[in-house]
Design goal:
Number of strands: 37
Oligomer: single chain
Distance between the termini: 50 Å
CATH class of the largest domain: Alpha Beta
CATH superfamily of the largest domain: Class I glutamine amidotransferase (GATase) domain
Helix content: 10-25%
CATH topology of the largest domain: Rossmann fold
Length: about 700
C-alpha cells in the first residue's frame, strides 16, 4: 500500500526558486528583442517562452540530483506449513482405504480454507522433505527431526504462523523431535494418523548377515521377528536360496507379544551375489503380510587373498600383523620361518619379511620374484645384506647401534589416506626400535612416516614405499608394532588405528595394477531408493583416456527382464545414471568397440529392500501429544480435521506483519523526464519554424 511520494534533494530548497528564475531569465533574454517575432501573435510568443523556460528550469533542477522518495507498506501474511507424512506406515492399519481417499480430500479442503487468510505451503516428507504434488504413502523412511531442521532452514526469518504436522508419530531415522525441535514460538497442530491399537501381525523385523563370505564357508545369519496379538496360532520360519530350503522351523505362538530370535549358520555353495528369501508364514486376519518377508543378499567370493609372513625368529610383531590382517575377511595369513621357505611365492599376493638376517639365497629369490614384499627391519637385521637387495632404501654408516624413534605421519603421502584419528594416534604413540645409520632413499620413494627423534622431525624415512611396475615394496625400518596394538587397546578398547594402518598397507601392496583398457566402476550393493550409478573408463593402445565410441549396457534381473542403456560422455570418460531399480539381484554386461577390438565387462549388483516402515505399525500419538504441548499447539484426529482451521483462526498470535519500506530513485533515471524535455523542445522548434525563426 502506497503511503506517500515526494521529491527530495540534498541541496537547500530555495535553490528550486533559482532554477525557475534561471529558466524564466533565459527565455526572457531569448525572446525579449527578437525582431523575427514582431508579427507573431502574443499568445504564441508566450507559449514558446513558457516551453523554453520549462526546459531550462527542468535541466537546472536535474543538476540538484533530485530523488523520488516513496513510502509504502508491505503486508506479509502468516505462513501456514502443512507437513504430511508420505510413508507407507500410514496404510499399515484397517483404515488404509480411508487414508488413500477421504482423508486426502479432507486435507485438501483444509488447505483451501486456510488459503483464504494465510499463505499456505504444503510439503510431504519421507526420505526427503519437499513440496509434493501427489501424496501416495509410498515412502520408505520417516525422519521427523529432519522435518523441523528443514523448516528452520527454509523459513528462517519469515513469518511462520503455524505448522500442521500430519503423521502417525512413528519415526525410524533421526532423533526424537520432542527433544530436538526448537521452541521458537511457532505453534504446532498435529493430526494424529494411524492406529494405536496393537493388531494381529507377524513382523520380520531384521535379518543380519555379512556383506560377503567365501565359497564353502558357513556364514552366520541372525533373524529377529515379532508376533503381535497372535496367541494360539503357529508360524513357520523358512529360508530359501534359488528355490531350495536351507532352513525351516515352526513356532507355537504362546503370548500376545511373541519374539522370534534365531542365529543360524548357512553354507555358501555358489559364487556370486546370492539371494536368500527369509519368510515367516502368515496367520489368519493379519493386518499386513508385506512385513512377513525379506530378501537379503550376500556376495560369495571364490577365495581369500593369501598373505605370507616370513620371519627369521619368533617375534610379537608377527602376532600383531596376523591379527590386524585377518580382521579383514578378504585376507588369509600364513606364518612361516625362513628356514622352511622354499622360495616359491606364486600362491601369495604379498610376502611380509620380518628381520632380515641370513638365508641370503631364499631372500634373493623373494626379492627377484614378481610378488610384492613388505620388509620390516629389526635390531638384528644385517644391514649389508639388506643394502644388497637394492630395494630403493640404503642404510649407510651403520655401526650396529640402535635408536628409539617416534613416527611422524607425512600428511602429503599420495598412495593412500589414513583417518585423522589414526594419524593422531601414530604421531603420539610409543617409539619403534630402528637400526642406527644414515638413511638414503631413491627419488621414486614415498615416505609414509619420517623418523622423529625427541621433538625433531628428521628427513630420514621410517616407513617408505616403492613401485616398479606390478611389483611394490614397503619398508618399515623399525620393530614394535605389537606395542602400538596393545597401547591402542588400553586407551580405546579397540584396534582401529593399527588395523587401518596395516590393512591399507597390505591392500596397496597386494592389489595388482589394473592394466585392462576398459574399466567399469559400480557399487555392488544399493538400497531401493538409491540411484544406480556407473562410471566407465576406456583406454587406447597408448593408455590414453578415450570416449569416442559408444558404450552399451545391458542389465538383467532374476526374471530375465532386460534393461538397455547407453552411457553419457564426460570430458574424457563415461557416466550413467541408470535410475532406481526394484529390490533384487541384477547382472550387467557392458560392451564397447574401439578400433577393431571389442571389450566386454561383466558384473552383478544387488538392490536391497528398505522395510523400516513395516517393522512398527503401532502409531505413537503420545509423541505427538508431547510435541504439541511443547509448542503450544493442539492435537487433532482425522475425524475432526476441520478443528485445525478453527484453532488457527482463533489464535491471535498468528497475524500478518506490516513492513514500512522506503524507496529512493534518482529523478534523472526516469525516462518520461527526457520525453517531456524532448516534447517541449520539439513543440518550441515547430512553432519557431512555422513562424520563420529557422
Amino acid at each position: 500500500m502506497l503511503l506517500s511520494i515526494k521529491i527530495v534533494t540534498e541541496y537547500p530548497i530555495w535553490l528550486i526558486a533559482f532554477c525557475l528564475l534561471a529558466g524564466v531569465g533565459y527565455a526572457f533574454f531569448l525572446y525579449r528583442n527578437d525582431s523575427r517575432f514582431e508579427n507573431v501573435k502574443l499568445w504564441l510568443k508566450r507559449t514558446m517562452f513558457i516551453f523554453r523556460a520549462l526546459v531550462v528550469s527542468i535541466l537546472c533542477f536535474l543538476l540538484l540530483s533530485p530523488l523520488i522518495k516513496t513510502i509504502f507498506n508491505t503486508v506479509e501474511k502468516p505462513i501456514i506449513v502443512i507437513a504430511q507424512d508420505n510413508t507407507s506406515s500410514i496404510l499399515m492399519n484397517k483404515d488404509s482405504v480411508f487414508y488413500k481417499t477421504e482423508y486426502l480430500t479432507k486435507i485438501d479442503n483444509l488447505k483451501q480454507k486456510l488459503s483464504s487468510t494465510y499463505d499456505v505451503k504444503m510439503y510431504g516428507f519421507d526420505e526427503q522433505f519437499d513440496e509434493k504434488d501427489v501424496i501416495n504413502f509410498t515412502g520408505k523412511i520417516t525422519n521427523l527431526s529432519n522435518v523441523f531442521d528443514e523448516l528452520e532452514n527454509r523459513f528462517y526469518n519469515q513469518n511462520i504462523g503455524a505448522v500442521i504436522l500430519a503423521t502417525d508419530g512413528i519415526f525410524n531415522e533421526g532423533s526424537n523431535p520432542v527433544y530436538t525441535s526448537q521452541s521458537n514460538g511457532v505453534p504446532i497442530y498435529a493430526i494424529a494418523l494411524g492406529d494405536t491399537t496393537p493388531q494381529k501381525d507377524i513382523i520380520l523385523k531384521d535379518v543380519v548377515l555379512n556383506k560377503l563370505t567365501f565359497l564353502g564357508n558357513q556364514f552366520p545369519m541372525e533373524i529377529n521377528g515379532l508376533v503381535q496379538e497372535g496367541e494360539g496360532f503357529k508360524t513357520k520360519l523358512e529360508i530359501t536360496n534359488r528355490g531350495k530350503i536351507v532352513f525351516e522351523k515352526e513356532y507355537q505362538i504362546n503370548s500376545s507379544n511373541f519374539s522370534i530370535n534365531e542365529n543360524i549358520l548357512v553354507e555358501a555353495k555358489e559364487v556370486g551375489v546370492q539371494n536368500y528369501k527369509v519368510k515367516l508364514s502368515t496367520i489368519e486376519n493379519e493386518v499386513s503380510i508385506a512385513n512377513n518377508l525379506q530378501d537379503v543378499y550376500i556376495e560369495v567370493l571364490d577365495g581369500r587373498q593369501e598373505i605370507l609372513i616370513l620371519a627369521n625368529a619368533p617375534h610379537p610383531d608377527l602376532k600383531a600383523l596376523k591379527l590386524s590382517i585377518e580382521s579383514n575377511e578378504n585376507y588369509k595369513v600364513k606364518t612361516q620361518m625362513l628356514n622352511d621357505f622354499n622360495g616359491n611365492t606364486e600362491a601369495f599376493s604379498l610376502v611380509i619379511l620380518h628381520q632380515l638376517s641370513g638365508y641370503e639365497e631364499a631372500v634373493q629369490k623373494l626379492n627377484q620374484s614378481k610378488t610384492s614384499v613388505w620388509y620390516i627391519l629389526d635390531a638384528k637385521t644385517t644391514v649389508n645384506q639388506f643394502n644388497k637387495l637394492k630395494t630403493g632404501l640404503e642404510i649407510l654408516n651403520s655401526n650396529g647401534q640402535t635408536n628409539q624413534v617416534l613416527a611422524n605421519v607425512n600428511e602429503q603421502f599420495p598412495l593412500f589416506s589414513l583417518a585423522e584419528k589414526t594419524i593422531k594416534y601414530i604421531n603420539n604413540t610409543s617409539p619403534l626400535l630402528t637400526v642406527f645409520g644414515t638413511y638414503k632413499i631413491q627419488e621414486n620413494g614415498y615416505n609414509l612416516f619420517h623418523q622423529k627423534i625427541g621433538s625433531v622431525i628428521t628427513e630420514s624415512p621410517l616407513m617408505t614405499f616403492f613401485q616398479n611396475g606390478n611389483k611394490k615394496v614397503a619398508i618399515l625400518a623399525g620393530e614394535g608394532l605389537w606395542k602400538w596394538r596393545i597401547q591402542e587397546f588400553n586407551k580405546t578398547k579397540k584396534h582401529e588405528a593399527i588395523d587401518e594402518l596395516i590393512n591399507k598397507t597390505v591392500q596397496f601392496l597386494s592389489v595388482k595394477e589394473d592394466k585392462s583398457k576398459f574399466r567399469l566402476i559400480v557399487k555392488n550393493r544399493f538400497l531401493e531408493n538409491e540411484e544406480v550409478l556407473f562410471n566407465a573408463e576406456l583406454y587406447n593402445d597408448s593408455y590414453e583416456l578415450s570416449n569416442e565410441p559408444e558404450i552399451e549396457l545391458l542389465v538383467t534381473n532374476e526374471g530375465e527382464d532386460e534393461f538397455k542403456f547407453n552411457f553419457n560422455k564426460t570430458s574424457n570418460a563415461y557416466f550413467l545414471n541408470a535410475g532406481i531399480f526394484n529390490p533384487g539381484a541384477y547382472q550387467y554386461v557392458a560392451t564397447v568397440v574401439l578400433g577393431d577390438k571389442k571389450y566386454v565387462e561383466k558384473g552383478e549388483f544387488q538392490v536391497a529392500q528398505i522395510q523400516l516402515e513395516m517393522n512398527n505399525t503401532i502409531a505413537n500419538h503420545q509423541l505427538l501429544a508431547n510435541l504439541v504441548k511443547k509448542h503450544d499447539g493442539g492435537l487433532f484426529y482425522p475425524s475432526n480435521i476441520e478443528g485445525v482451521n478453527d484453532a488457527i483462526q482463533k489464535n491471535n498470535n498468528i497475524a500478518s506483519i506490516i513492513f514500512e519500506e522506503k524507496d529512493l530513485k534518482e529523478l534523472i533515471n526516469l525516462k518520461w523526464i527526457f520525453g517531456l524535455i524532448l516534447l517541449l523542445l520539439s513543440a518550441e522548434w515547430f512553432l519557431r519554424k512555422r513562424n520563420g525563426a529557422y
